[in-house]
Amino acid sequence: MAVYTEVSDDELAAFVAEFDIGELVSAKGIAEGVENSNYLVQTAGTGDAPTSYILTLYEKRVRPDDLPYFLGLMEHLAARGIACPTPLHGRDGAALRTLCARPAAIVTFLQGMWPKRVAPHHCAGLGQALAEMHLAGADFEMSRANDLSVAGWRPLFQDSAARAHEVQTGLAEELGAELDALEAAWPTDLPSGVIHADLFPDNVFFLGQRLSGLIDFYFACNDFFAYDLAVCLNAWCFEGDGSFNVTKARHMLSAYRRVRPFSDAELDALPLLARGSALRFLLTRLYDWLHHPAGALVMPKDPLEYLGKLRFHRDVAGPGAYGLDWAA
Amino acid sequence: MAVYTEVSDDELAAFVAEFDIGELVSAKGIAEGVENSNYLVQTAGTGDAPTSYILTLYEKRVRPDDLPYFLGLMEHLAARGIACPTPLHGRDGAALRTLCARPAAIVTFLQGMWPKRVAPHHCAGLGQALAEMHLAGADFEMSRANDLSVAGWRPLFQDSAARAHEVQTGLAEELGAELDALEAAWPTDLPSGVIHADLFPDNVFFLGQRLSGLIDFYFACNDFFAYDLAVCLNAWCFEGDGSFNVTKARHMLSAYRRVRPFSDAELDALPLLARGSALRFLLTRLYDWLHHPAGALVMPKDPLEYLGKLRFHRDVAGPGAYGLDWAA
């Protein structure tokens, strides 16, 4: 739940008038995304019904320097047929603008709802769309390092280690050992390119059975393609009770590799990347858990959910645990 | 900021399918209203663009028994040309339904934005629309007592009196004396009918200069028409520094009485009704201030804003203080 910045009707109308999209007829702050302020705006449009857009004001967690990468990437992917929001350009040509002293942009509106209850067919749609996105990003010319990959974890860990026992006894020790192991074994030469890096179910829309869009590219970066899959394995394939659903994983990975086949090295690295991805979300959640102000609007997510996932991947014998059919 | 109840995509699609409005293509929780959960939903519609609706789940502050009155009233007013949301009827004929174990309804979507910075022309539009609403409600057959009028204030006061000094020293004594005076002098025979009773700026939409809709009828009831004006005087005609803007009041009242002239008795009662309306919002805000749970999502509003308004109306010499031109 968000909307941190309240934009007045006058400011909003003036902002929309910088674009060639007709007159503003409605604006509702929407309760999605915890990092930025989002409004569903409607303009009179050109036909007989209003046209919907999403207006985003980028709040403090997004570095302004990164915005040209994020907006450029969405435009690049949309131009190559990926169903994702496309930034609109104002009459002066600029997509990235300023509203209420914050960076702001208007992007196209995507139909669809995110799946509150993930089914295997959702995972298949996700796998296919992820592979298509990886291929479509190949000729995107900008680059952005993944500052939440292995090199970023130790500083994050050190910010929370002294108080980690408040969440669970022995947690700092377990995470420290895990960090040592991951730093020592982390691969350096897997196929890589643009990844989404945060493709949780609430960032993937479906219309009925069909995937209708990917949103929220504000963690996108250049990293291993297989790391993106590792993020999705953790976000989509565990049940509420912590158990791993191998059918969902098989649907996701099989659909992915029908579009973009894995190398053997990628396959072999998958358990390690999945451990790393689990550690990444555990560390950011742990930080938020220990540092969120009392009475904050956003309830922090449970870091321990990701400890269970980390342990699962640490204990698997190999990528076969993810339901992969080796012949495929 | 609201959205208390998270509705899953499957439940939502099933709910929308009970209406004859086409397939659900989008749903966003919107950050408006603090009492209920609201979603902006879009369906495929009948033309080439989606159609927007508002889905409301009624949370605990609304009494289910009152909902037929609220929904019936909106339908009645909309049928008489008042720009307000109209409840849709499902295929079985019912407008009031159930979703996630809560009463729920879908109403039409109104274009427009509420004015964050109120100007005199907004007050004129409001006055006219309010009078038109009062006239249009004349033949509405249901009735609902105003449980937040004079008879409801003493119990509300008693729930907060013992701790009122936490907000301001001497507050309980001042409010107690005010309550005595209002109970003794409250009129009994002014022109009455259906009133909105909560017509704050965030419940009134404008498209440019033109008023495009009234929303949120969940405090509507049968009471004095002039009491509705008294609520609006308090909600629209004070500046942020507590000063009363007589130009705004004159615009509001003049526009109102061009549509529905006041009786002399209504005019004379206006200062008293405005004191009462100020006390009503002061008491509910005081209650919320003293009783809101720590860490609640919704920050309570400052009750003392309404103490200043109450004192203003107590000190005016008569209705001329509201900028009324007696010859009009």
Total count of strands of chain A: 9
Shape of chain A, please? globular
Compute the number of structural domains of chain A.
2
What's the quaternary structure here?
homodimer
Please report the distance between the alpha carbons of the first and last residues of chain A.
Answer: 41 Å
| Main sheet: strands, sense, barrel of chain A | 5 strands, antiparallel
Helix fraction bin of chain A: 25-40%
Q: Name the structural class of chain A.
A: alpha+beta
Portion of residues in beta strands of chain A equals 5-15%
**What is the strand arrangement across the widest sheet of chain A?**
1-2-3-5-4
* CATH class category of the largest domain in chain A: Alpha Beta
Number of helices of chain A: 9
Written as H for each helix and E for each strand, in order along the chain, the element string of chain A is HEEEHEEHHHEEEEHHHH
Structure, explained:
By secondary structure, the first copy, chain A, is of the alpha+beta class. Chain A has two domains: 9-108, Phosphorylase Kinase, domain 1 (2-Layer Sandwich); 120-322, Alpha-Beta Complex (Aminoglycoside 3'-phosphotransferase, Chain: A, domain 2), CATH 3.90.1200. Chain A is 40% helix and 14% strand. Chain A is built from nine helices and nine strands. The first copy, chain A, has helices at residues 9-16, 67-79, 120-136, 150-160, 171-185, 225-236, 246-259, 264-291, 304-315; strands spanning 24-29, 37-43, 51-57, 97-99, 102-108, 192-195, 204-207, 210-214, 221-224. Chain A has a five-stranded antiparallel β-sheet, with helices on one face. A two-stranded antiparallel ribbon of chain A has the order 6-9. In chain A, strand 4 (97-99) and strand 5 (102-108) form a beta hairpin. In chain A, helix 3 (120-136) packs parallel to helix 7. The longest helix of chain A has 28 residues, at 264-291. The radius of gyration of chain A is 20 Å and the shape is globular. The A-B interface holds A 1-3, 6, 8-10, 12-13, 23-32, 40, 42, 45, 47-52, 109, 111-117, 206-208, 294-295, 297 and B 1-3, 6, 8-10, 12-13, 23-32, 40, 42, 45, 47-52, 109, 111-117, 206-208, 294-295, 297.
